[in-house]
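Q: what sequence does this backbone want?
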């Protein structure tokens, strides 16, 4: 795992029907590496959500980072425009890097910047052709969370903010929102739809998921006379 100063980015929420997509960029400086390793930071998919929630505030205070939260409502709008989630992810990763480098006055940053690869480098830069500022150079690596501490940290920070947002949505509707996009999610979404209506549901789910059509076209069984 990279143990020098470097920056990494990662995203979460792309496989969840409910909730936002969260992208994080994190700067790991040499001085913080020992403490981060002692905290057991690794790919968030290999960490318990309770542990991530317990470490979230500490991580935010310990390292310089930038988090972007794309709400389901805005995601749905952007997908109508681009029709390709990878275009949206490319713009989010680039924006997170831009904001982090600008805020921390790191325009002359010479160390490695690593993006957990979700698309080829060729397509990534093609998707950013209309952007005024594109952060370069960047390194694209698959399974980068296992190779670069900053990417693992970014995945944890993104997961932390994702979980907080899911909790916020759950509190609004007085229920725990299930993660993922499986059958349990379909059942839950159908029940929630009957309570809050389609307009409210549209604001908290990703409408491009196959779950959406299954849920909104599911027959409603009348249990009372009308």
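A:
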């Amino acid at each position: 795992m990279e143990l020098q100063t470097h920056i990494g980015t990662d995203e979460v929420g792309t496989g969840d029907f409910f909730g936002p997509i969260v992208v994080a960029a994190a700067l790991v400086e040499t001085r913080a590496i020992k403490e981060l390793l002692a905290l057991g930071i690794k790919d968030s998919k290999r960490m318990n959500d309770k542990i991530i929630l317990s470490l979230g505030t500490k991580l935010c205070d310990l390292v310089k980072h930038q988090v972007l939260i794309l709400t389901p409502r805005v995601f749905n709008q952007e997908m109508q425009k681009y029709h390709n989630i990878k275009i949206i992810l490319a713009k989010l990763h680039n924006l997170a890097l831009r904001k982090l480098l600008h805020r921390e006055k790191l325009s002359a940053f010479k160390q490695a910047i690593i993006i957990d690869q979700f698309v080829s480098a060729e397509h990534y830069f093609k998707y950013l052709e209309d952007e005024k500022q594109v952060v370069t150079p960047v390194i694209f690596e698959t399974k980068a969370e296992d190779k670069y501490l900053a990417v693992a940290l970014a995945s944890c920070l993104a997961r932390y903010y994702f979980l907080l947002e899911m909790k916020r949505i759950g509190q609004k509707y007085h229920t725990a929102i299930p993660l993922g996009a499986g059958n349990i999610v379909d059942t839950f979404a159908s029940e929630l739809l009957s309570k809050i209506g389609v307009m409210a549901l549209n604001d908290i789910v990703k409408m491009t998921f196959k779950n959406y059509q299954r849920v909104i076209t599911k027959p409603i069984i009348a249990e009372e006379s009308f």
